[in-house]
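Example S7 (C-alpha cells).
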C-alpha cells in the first residue's frame, strides 16, 4: 500500500515538474499567489441599520463599492445615499485602502437629499428592477457573487480503483528478514510501532474498501440509468428524417431547452406607475421641495398620485385628471419613505407580497437568461406572433424613445473622454487592480457604445442637425452627447485611400483604424492614449463615433495641437521630441522601423512609423494617437494607386516572424543534434547484437537512459526556445509603396522585406488554407466564420477570390460554393448600402422585399421578372381587390349624398346667420390639397423596378473588381441558390451582414421543374414588405480583454493537454471568475470556459455538473450568437454527448437540433453536417436501432463523397463505419462488401504495407469467416440439422466484444495516421467516453 502511494506520489511530482518546466516556475507561483490573495474585510450598515458583512473584497474607490451594492439584493433599491466611516463623510472617489479598518470595519450608508436628477435616477432604477431586472446576488461576498452564482460547482474528484495489499512474495521477504535479525529492546519498540501501523493500515484499508463499495454502487446506479434511458429512447425516439430537401423556418424558436429552461418574466407588482399630468411642478411648490409627480395604480385598485420631494416620496391629495393638491394625503394614514419601494410597501400589502415573489424569482433565475447584451443581438429572425415587450416595459421604453434624449444619460451629460482616460491611468500592478481597471474600462466603453449607437440612429434618421449644414450630406459632422460623429464612405470598386482633410475616410480605412485601436489597447503602453471609438452601420450609412479630445473643437487650426505626423498629406510634418519617444515605444512593440521623410520644403524628418498617424496633445496634457490606419506595411500583391489602403494584417506579421524564428532555431539545433543521432544509432546496433542475458541486464540501464533522454529532451526544448529568442527580428518601413516622399537612399533590403510578406501569403498561407480545406480542418461554415479563419491565418477578405481560384477543378465544390456565397453576400451588402440611402423611409420595406426577391426567388420567377412580367406577392388577386375598392367607394358616395341632403337645411340656416359677418381667416383654403403626389418620391421607382439581370450585373462587376473572381454568367447558375437549404444559408448570411430582421416563416423559394410549373401556374414572390421586421444597427468595437484572464486560459489549456485535470479545473475556474467580474456573464469567453469545465466534470464522472454547465453554455451561445449559429450547434452537440449518460431521449433531441442548425447555416453539404450524422448513427447503435444508424451513416457517406470524391480517407472511414453497423445487425456479407470498398481506397492512398491497410485486411478476413459461418448455419438449419456446438446463438456480449475488437481498434489505429483528421470527435464522443 505504501509502495503504491509513494509510486503515485512520484508520478504526481514528475507531472507537476513537467508542468513547471513547460509553464515556468515563476509564472506558476505568480498564478498561485493570485488565487490565494485576499482583500479587505468590510461590513456595510444599510439605511435600516442592518449589518451586511461583505467578506474579503478587493476594491479601490468608494464609488466601486456603490456599484457593487447596486447589484446586491439587500441594497439594490437604495440609490441616493453617501458613505460614512468613523463619523466622517466619504467622497465617492476616496480610496478605501487609505481608511483604517483595524479599529472599525463598518461603513454606514446615510440617506442624502434628492434633487431632480437623483430622484429621476431612483425612479428609473425602480422601474428597471420591476420590469427589466439585471442580475441580483444574495451572497455577502459581493465581488465574487456573480461568479459563484454562475459557477456554483464543486471541484471534481477523480475516482480511484481500490489498490491491492501487496504481492505474497513481498510479504514473505519482509517476514524472513524480520526473523533473521536478532531481537533487542529497540526492535521490540519498533515491533510495537509496526503493529500500530498495521492496525492503522487495516483501518485505512477498510475505509478504502468502503469507498470502493460506494464507487461500485455509484457505477451500478449510472449503468442502470443508462439502461433505462436506452429503453426509453427505443420507445420515444423517431428514426432520422434524411430526405428533407427544405429546412423549416418555423422551428427556429422551438428549442429542446424550452421545457427545461424558462425565460424570465417579471411578476406583476403594480398596474402601472408613470409621470403625472401635473408636471412640471408649480414654482410655489418647487420652493417647498417638490421635484415631480407620479401616478400609480396598485393591485388593490385605487389610483394614487405620488410627490417626489427632496426628502423622499409621499402620497398627496391629488386626483389625476381632476384635482391638484400636492400636500400629503389625509385620506389614509400618512405614508412617507426615502424610497419608492418603502412608500408602496406602506400603501399596498399586495405590492410587498408580489415584490418579494419577484425578487425571489430573479434570484432563482439563471444569470445567463436574465442578463442583457452589450451590443444588438445577432438574431436575424423574429417570431411572427411574438410579443415584443410587456406593457409596463413598453411604457418605460416609450418614455425613453419619446424624450428626445437619443442616448443622453439621465444622470446628466458625461465627459466620455475623461472617464475613458481616467481608467487608463488607474493602477495595474496588482491582479485585483487590473480587474478593477478593466471592469471600469468595460463599463464606460459599454455605456459609450450604447450612447453612440442611439446617437448614430438619430443622425441617420435626421433627428440631429449637423454642425456644417452647408456642406454635402456625406461630409456632415455632428457633436451630440459629448461624442463626435462623422460618416465613412464606401469605396466599392477598389482599395484606394481617398481620405483627406476635405473628404471622408473609406470603410477600409476605418477598419484599419479600428484594428490599430485594438492593437494599442492590447499592448497598453504607459503614456499613450487612444480615444473611445465605435462604428455603427445602419441603413446604408457607416457612422464613426469618437470621444472628443479636450481642446480639439475649440481650435479650428489642428496644427496648433498636432505634435506628430501630418495633417496636410505630407506637406508639413510634425515630430516633437516628446511624441517621438512615445512613438518609438509603440514601434518597438509592433516591429516598425524609423523612416526619413521629406516635406514640401525638402526638409528631412526622421520619424518612427508612418506620417499618416497623427499625434495630438490635448489641453489635458495627454498624448493621443489618432488615425491608426498604417500600423502594418503595404500589401505588395495589390499594386497601383487604386490599392493604396490594401495593408498586411498584424496577424500575418506575427505568423511570419514566428515561422522565421522556428526556421532559425531548427537550423541552429540541427548542428548540435548530428553527433547525438550517430551515437544513438550506434547504441541501437550494439543492443541488437546482445544475447538474452545481456538484454535482461540492459533493461535497468535502459530505464536510466530513458530518464537521461527525457532530461536531454527538456534541454533541447530549452535550447530551442533560447534560439527562437535569439532569432533576428524583422521590422518594416511603413512608408514604402505609399504617397510619402522618402529621402534618397538604398531601400532595396527594406522593400524586399515588405515583398517577402506578400510572397509568404501566396506561397505559404493560401496553400495552407486550401490544404486545411482538403483534410477538413478549420473549415468555415458561413460568412462570419470565414472572416475569422482568414484573419487568424493573416489573410484579408480580399483574398477570397484567390483562394477560390486555387481550388482544384471538380474538387471541394462545397468550399467553392461557400466562397462564392460569401462574395455574393458582401457585394450585395455594398449594393444595398448604396441604394438604401436613396430610398424614402416609407418605401424601405418594399425595397428590401424586392431586393430579396430578385436574389432568392425561384428561377422561373426570375425569368418572368427579367421579361418585365408582373408576379403577385400575395395570394389575393389584384382584380378582386380593385373590385372591393370600387364597391367601398360607391357605398361611401351613397352615404355622403344622404348626409348632404340632411345637412342642407342646417347649412342654409348657418349661412343666413353668418352671411353678413366678414371672415378674417378661412381654414379650408389652406388645405384644399393633400400633397400626396408631392410627398411620394417618384425616383424610388427605379429601385423598386430593378430587374434581376441588372442587379446581378452589379454583383458580378463588384466580385470581379474586388476579389478577382468570375461568377457564373446567370444568377440562376450559382450553386449557392440552386437548392432550398443553400438559399436559406445565403439569406441568413445576407441578413446578418446588413442587419436585417425578417419573420420566421417558410418562404417560397424552392426550385421546381418545368412540368410542375404547368400544373401550378400561379407562382408567388417569396417576400412581401410585411415580412420585413426591422433593420438593426451593426456595431463594431474593440474588445476589453484582461491579460490575467489570458494567462489563466493559456495555462489551463497547457494543463488540460498534458492531462493535469485538477490544475486545469482550477485555472479555468479562476479564468471565468476574472471574466465575470470584468464583463459580466454575457461574453464570448465565458462560453469557452463553461464548455471546458463541463468536459472536465464529464471526464471525472460528475455527470450532473457537466450537464448543468453545458446547458448554461448552450443558453449563453443562443443569447450571444443567436439560435441559428455554428457555435450554438456545437454547444448542442456537446450537450448531447454528455446527456447520453443520463437521458438518451434528450440527447437525441439535442443532436437533431445541432443537425438542424448546421443545415440552416451551412446549406446542403458541409463536414459539420456529415460529422453530426455520424454522431447520430453511433447514438442509434447504442439503442440497438441498426437500421436508423445505417441511414445516418449513409447520409454521412453521401456527403463525404460529394465533398471529397471517392478517393479520400473520410470516405474510407465511412465505409468502415457502415461495415461495423452491418456487422452489428449480423449482416456479414454486406459488412464484407463495405469493408472491401474501404480497403481498396486505403490501399490506393497509403500502400499495402501501411499498418492501417493491414488492419483493414484482417477485418476482411474476419468478416469473410463470419459470413461463411453464417451461410453454413443457414444451410444446416434448412436441412433441419444442427452440428455440434451450433445449437445456440452467440451471446450479445461476445458479439459486442467481437465488434469492438475488429472495428473499434481499427478506427482508433486509423485515427493515429498523420493524414487522418476525420471522425475522431465522433469516436471519442460516442464510444470511448463510455
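Recovered sequence:
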Amino acid at each position: 500500500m505504501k509502495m503504491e502511494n509513494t509510486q503515485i506520489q512520484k508520478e504526481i511530482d514528475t507531472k507537476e515538474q513537467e508542468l513547471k518546466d513547460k509553464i515556468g516556475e515563476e509564472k506558476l507561483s505568480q498564478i498561485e499567489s493570485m488565487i490565494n490573495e485576499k482583500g479587505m474585510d468590510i461590513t456595510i450598515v444599510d439605511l435600516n441599520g442592518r449589518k451586511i458583512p461583505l467578506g474579503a473584497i478587493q476594491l479601490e474607490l468608494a464609488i466601486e463599492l456603490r456599484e457593487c451594492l447596486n447589484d446586491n439584493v439587500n441594497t439594490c433599491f437604495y440609490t441616493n445615499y453617501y458613505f460614512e466611516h468613523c463619523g466622517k463623510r466619504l467622497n465617492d472617489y476616496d480610496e478605501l485602502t487609505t481608511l483604517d479598518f483595524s479599529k472599525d470595519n463598518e461603513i454606514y450608508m446615510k440617506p442624502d437629499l434628492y434633487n431632480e436628477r437623483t430622484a429621476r435616477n431612483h425612479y428609473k432604477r425602480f422601474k428597471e428592477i420591476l420590469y427589466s431586472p439585471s442580475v441580483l446576488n444574495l451572497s455577502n461576498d459581493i465581488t465574487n457573487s456573480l461568479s459563484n452564482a454562475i459557477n456554483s460547482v464543486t471541484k471534481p474528484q477523480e475516482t480511484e480503483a481500490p489498490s491491492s495489499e501487496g504481492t505474497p512474495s513481498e510479504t514473505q521477504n519482509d517476514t524472513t528478514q524480520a526473523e533473521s535479525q536478532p531481537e533487542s529492546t529497540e526492535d521490540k519498540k519498533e515491533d510495537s510501532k509496526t503493529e500500530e501501523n498495521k492496525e492503522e493500515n487495516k483501518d485505512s484499508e477498510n475505509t478504502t474498501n468502503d469507498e470502493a463499495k460506494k464507487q461500485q454502487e455509484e457505477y451500478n446506479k449510472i449503468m442502470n440509468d443508462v439502461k433505462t434511458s436506452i429503453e426509453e429512447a427505443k420507445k420515444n425516439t423517431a428514426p432520422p428524417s434524411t430526405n428533407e430537401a427544405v429546412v423549416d423556418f418555423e422551428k427556429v424558436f422551438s428549442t429542446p431547452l424550452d421545457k427545461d429552461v424558462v425565460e424570465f418574466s417579471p411578476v406583476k407588482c403594480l398596474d402601472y406607475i408613470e409621470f403625472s399630468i401635473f408636471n412640471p411642478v408649480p414654482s410655489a411648490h418647487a420652493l417647498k421641495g417638490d421635484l415631480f409627480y407620479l401616478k400609480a395604480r396598485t393591485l388593490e385598485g385605487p389610483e394614487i398620485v405620488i410627490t417626489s420631494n427632496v426628502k423622499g416620496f409621499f402620497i398627496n391629495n391629488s386626483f389625476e385628471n381632476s384635482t391638484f393638491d400636492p400636500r400629503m394625503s389625509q385620506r389614509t394614514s400618512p405614508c412617507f419613505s426615502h424610497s419608492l419601494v418603502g412608500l408602496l410597501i406602506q400603501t399596498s400589502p399586495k405590492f410587498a407580497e408580489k415584490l418579494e415573489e419577484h425578487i425571489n424569482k430573479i434570484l432563482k433565475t439563471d444569470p445567463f437568461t436574465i442578463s442583457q447584451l452589450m451590443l444588438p443581438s445577432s438574431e436575424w429572425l423574429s417570431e411572427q406572433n411574438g410579443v415584443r415587450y410587456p406593457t409596463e416595459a413598453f411604457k418605460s421604453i416609450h418614455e425613453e424613445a419619446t424624450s428626445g434624449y437619443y442616448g443622453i444619460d439621465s444622470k446628466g451629460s458625461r465627459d466620455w473622454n475623461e472617464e475613458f482616460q481616467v481608467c487608463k491611468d488607474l493602477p495595474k500592478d496588482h491582479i485585483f487592480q487590473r480587474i478593477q481597471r478593466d471592469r471600469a474600462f468595460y463599463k464606460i466603453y459599454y455605456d459609450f457604445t450604447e450612447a453612440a449607437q442611439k446617437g448614430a440612429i438619430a443622425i441617420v434618421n435626421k433627428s440631429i442637425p449637423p454642425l456644417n449644414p452647408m456642406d454635402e450630406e456625406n461630409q456632415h459632422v455632428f457633436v451630440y452627447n459629448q461624442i463626435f460623429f462623422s460618416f465613412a464612405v464606401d469605396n466599392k470598386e477598389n482599395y484606394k485611400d481617398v481620405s483627406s482633410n476635405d473628404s471622408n475616410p473609406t470603410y477600409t480605412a476605418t477598419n484599419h483604424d479600428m484594428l490599430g485601436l485594438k492593437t494599442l489597447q492590447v499592448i497598453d503602453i504607459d503614456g499613450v492614449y487612444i480615444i473611445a471609438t465605435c462604428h455603427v452601420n445602419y441603413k446604408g450609412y457607416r457612422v464613426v463615433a469618437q470621444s472628443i479630445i479636450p481642446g480639439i473643437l475649440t481650435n479650428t487650426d489642428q496644427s496648433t495641437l498636432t505634435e506628430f505626423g501630418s495633417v496636410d498629406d505630407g506637406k508639413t510634418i510634425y515630430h516633437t521630441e516628446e511624441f517621438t519617444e512615445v512613438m518609438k515605444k509603440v514601434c518597438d512593440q509592433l516591429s516598425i522601423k524609423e523612416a526619413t521623410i521629406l516635406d514640401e520644403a525638402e526638409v528631412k524628418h526622421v520619424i518612427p512609423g508612418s506620417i499618416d498617424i497623427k499625434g495630438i496633445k490635448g489641453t489635458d496634457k495627454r498624448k493621443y494617437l489618432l488615425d491608426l490606419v498604417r500600423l502594418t506595411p503595404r500589401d505588395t500583391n495589390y499594386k497601383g494607386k487604386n490599392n493604396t489602403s490594401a495593408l498586411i494584417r498584424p496577424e500575418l506579421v506575427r505568423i511570419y516572424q514566428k515561422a522565421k524564428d522556428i526556421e532559425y532555431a531548427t537550423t541552429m539545433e540541427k548542428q548540435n543534434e548530428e553527433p547525438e543521432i550517430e551515437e544513438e544509432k550506434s547504441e541501437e546496433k550494439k543492443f541488437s547484437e546482445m544475447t538474452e542475458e545481456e538484454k535482461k541486464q540492459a533493461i535497468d540501464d535502459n530505464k536510466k537512459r530513458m530518464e537521461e533522454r527525457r532530461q536531454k529532451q527538456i534541454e533541447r526544448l530549452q535550447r530551442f526556445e533560447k534560439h527562437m529568442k535569439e532569432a533576428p527580428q524583422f521590422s518594416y518601413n511603413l512608408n514604402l509603396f505609399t504617397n510619402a516622399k522618402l529621402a534618397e537612399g538604398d531601400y532595396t533590403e527594406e522593400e524586399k522585406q515588405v515583398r517577402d510578406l506578400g510572397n509568404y501569403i501566396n506561397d505559404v498561407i493560401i496553400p495552407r488554407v486550401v490544404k486545411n480545406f482538403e483534410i477538413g480542418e478549420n473549415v468555415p461554415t458561413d460568412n462570419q466564420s470565414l472572416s475569422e479563419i482568414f484573419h487568424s491565418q493573416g489573410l484579408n477578405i480580399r483574398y477570397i477570390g484567390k483562394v477560390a481560384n486555387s481550388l482544384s477543378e471538380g474538387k471541394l465544390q462545397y468550399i467553392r460554393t461557400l466562397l462564392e456565397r460569401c462574395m455574393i453576400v458582401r457585394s450585395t451588402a455594398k449594393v444595398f448600402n448604396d441604394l438604401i440611402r436613396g430610398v424614402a423611409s416609407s418605401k424601405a420595406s418594399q425595397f428590401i422585399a424586392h431586393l430579396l426577391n430578385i436574389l432568392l426567388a425561384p428561377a422561373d420567377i426570375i425569368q418572368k421578372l427579367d421579361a418585365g412580367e408582373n408576379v403577385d406577392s400575395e395570394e389575393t388577386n389584384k382584380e378582386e381587390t380593385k373590385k372591393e375598392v370600387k364597391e367601398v367607394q360607391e357605398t361611401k358616395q351613397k352615404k355622403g349624398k344622404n348626409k348632404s341632403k340632411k345637412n342642407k337645411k342646417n347649412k342654409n340656416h348657418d349661412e343666413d346667420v353668418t352671411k353678413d359677418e366678414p371672415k378674417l381667416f378661412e381654414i379650408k383654403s389652406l388645405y384644399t390639397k393633400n400633397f400626396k403626389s408631392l410627398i411620394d418620391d417618384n425616383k424610388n421607382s427605379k429601385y423598386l423596378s430593378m430587374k434581376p439581370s441588372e442587379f446581378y450585373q452589379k454583383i458580378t462587376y463588384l466580385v470581379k473588381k474586388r476579389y478577382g473572381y468570375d461568377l457564373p454568367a446567370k444568377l440562376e447558375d450559382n450553386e449557392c441558390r440552386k437548392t432550398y437549404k443553400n438559399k436559406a444559408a445565403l439569406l441568413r448570411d445576407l441578413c446578418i451582414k446588413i442587419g436585417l430582421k425578417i419573420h420566421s416563416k417558410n418562404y417560397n423559394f424552392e426550385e421546381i421543374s418545368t412540368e410542375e410549373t404547368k400544373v401550378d401556374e400561379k407562382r408567388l414572390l417569396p417576400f412581401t414588405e410585411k415580412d420585413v421586421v426591422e433593420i438593426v444597427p451593426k456595431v463594431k468595437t474593440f474588445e476589453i480583454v484582461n491579460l490575467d484572464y489570458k494567462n489563466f486560459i493559456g495555462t489551463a489549456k497547457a494543463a488540460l493537454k498534458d492531462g493535469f485535470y485538477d490544475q486545469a479545473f482550477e485555472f479555468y475556474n479562476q479564468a471565468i471568475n476574472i471574466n465575470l467580474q470584468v464583463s459580466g456573464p454575457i461574453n464570448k469567453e465565458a462560453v469557452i470556459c463553461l464548455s471546458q469545465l463541463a468536459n472536465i466534470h464529464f471526464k471525472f464522472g460528475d455527470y450532473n455538473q457537466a450537464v448543468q454547465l453545458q446547458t448554461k453554455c448552450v443558453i449563453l451561445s443562443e443569447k450571444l450568437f443567436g439560435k441559428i449559429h455554428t457555435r450554438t450547434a456545437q454547444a448542442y452537440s456537446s450537450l448531447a454527448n454528455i446527456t447520453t449518460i443520463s437521458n438518451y431521449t434528450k440527447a437525441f433531441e439535442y443532436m437533431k437540433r445541432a443537425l438542424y442548425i448546421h443545415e440552416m447555416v451551412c446549406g446542403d453539404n458541409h463536414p459539420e453536417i456529415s460529422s453530426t450524422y455520424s454522431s447520430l448513427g453511433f447514438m442509434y447503435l447504442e439503442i440497438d436501432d441498426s437500421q436508423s444508424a445505417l441511414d445516418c451513416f449513409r447520409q454521412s457517406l453521401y456527403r463525404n463523397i460529394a465533398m471529397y470524391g471517392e478517393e479520400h480517407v473520410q470516405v474510407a472511414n465511412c465505409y468502415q463505419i457502415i461495415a461495423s453497423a452491418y456487422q452489428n445487425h449480423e449482416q456479414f456479407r454486406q459488412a464484407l462488401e463495405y469493408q472491401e470498398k474501404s480497403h481498396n481506397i486505403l490501399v490506393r492512398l497509403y500502400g499495402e504495407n501501411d499498418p492501417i491497410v493491414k488492419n483493414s485486411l484482417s477485418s476482411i478476413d474476419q468478416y469473410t469467416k463470419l459470413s461463411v459461418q453464417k451461410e453454413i448455419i443457414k444451410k444446416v438449419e434448412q436441412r433441419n440439422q444442427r452440428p455440434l456446438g451450433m445449437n445456440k446463438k452467440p451471446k450479445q456480449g461476445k458479439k459486442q466484444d467481437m465488434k469492438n475488437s475488429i472495428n473499434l481498434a481499427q478506427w482508433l489505429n486509423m485515427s493515429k495516421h498523420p493524414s487522418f483528421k476525420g471522425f475522431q470527435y465522433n469516436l471519442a464522443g460516442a464510444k470511448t467516453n463510455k
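Notes on this example. Residues 752 and 1174 are 49 Å apart (CA to CA).
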